[in-house]
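2.7 Reproducibility. Because tokenized structures are sensitive to small changes in the input, we list the exact sequence used for Flavoprotein involved in K+ transport, including any N-terminal residues retained from the expression construct. No trimming or masking was applied before prediction.
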Amino acid sequence: MTEHHTVIVIGAGQAGLSMSWHLTRRGVDHVVLERDTIAHEWLDGRWDNFTLVTPNWQCVLPGHAYDGDDPDGFMTRDLVYDFVRRYADSFGAPVREHVAVLSVQQAPGGGYAVSTSAGAMTADQVVVAVGGYHVPSIPRLAERVPETITQIHSSRYRSAAALPPGGVLVVGTGQSGAQIAEDLHLEGRQVHLVAGSAPRVARFYRGRDCVAWLQDMGVYDVSISEHAGGLSKRESTNHYVTGRDGGRDIDLRAFALDGMRLYGRLTDVGSDGVLRFAPTLEQSLDAADAVSEGIKNDIDAYIARAGLDAPVEERYTPVWRPESEPTELDLEAAGVTSVVWAVGFRRDYRWLKVGVFDGEGHPAHTRGVTAAQGLYFLGLPWQNTWGSGRFAAVARDAEYLAEQMSPAVGARVPAAV
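Resulting structure tokens (single pass, no recycling of outputs):
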């Protein structure tokens, strides 16, 4: 007989486990299907020296808050993995590891038919908790890079020692690209960094972590419907900063002073192994700095409104500017032996055969609730607020969905787990 559950949750990261906690607490029959292992992306998709960029005190899952001795610090990759694994163990989450979901479609009589690597299942309701970053994105330009050059996506980067000796080209300055460039630089590699349009933020300002200020200001609580950009915020690039060594700014200008070589947007890779760039470097650096200083302006205004006593701090002054922007890089002549592509991911929902997507392939939803009865998303970037998809607000998003689901699944609420 086909196995049936009231709810099937797809994905056993922090989002799927948060939903499982609420369903367990409400006594709802469910199973969590995970194609790999619990929280594996934290271990398999991060480099050796990875740290969170948000403070540990923001790591709060339903019924499970950070309980270490460094709340203002930044957990390493292994500690985050352990944090999520311990969460699953804390309430006996019904996770089935190494079970891949092959397809989900609406069943003729209602509910959903779920085809998996372990056989067919059905469910009254399905929660898709696989995040928004599925397939590593590498541009077609990479096909023209000489075969002698090692190329990897940022999700496969582990350490400088794992790459061939020589210089490294990092393409992209989002959170991963900027931090990987820093990691390589600190290991003594000659780094060539292609700067994109990602903004940056100061780690500390006026005596506190900027995340703490933004938390107090309610920035993480503002819903996407209240933002001027509306749904376009879901395509926003996160600000680059680091939690390494207790946390600090990532200042690409300072890296340049210290020998890192910076370039504007990559436009072409010639058959001769020569890369060509648009003269956008200075513009990118200025724009990133402007965002950082704008956040400081908001913090200053908040401090003034609230009448808070906070130390005054000098504003940032650019420590370096390009005298002229490089337009070419000969990989062989420069001794570059590796390229790290840090240009993001593509969504892949081909297995979800339900009409809940817009014209660009984005899940169409309101706070995770779709137009298809009983189908929900959880853990998406900007699902509702800036913190959605991260530890900052996934607990709140999971609770909201659990409340939406409860009447339909006839949930009862026993003693709290």
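The radius of gyration is 23 Å.
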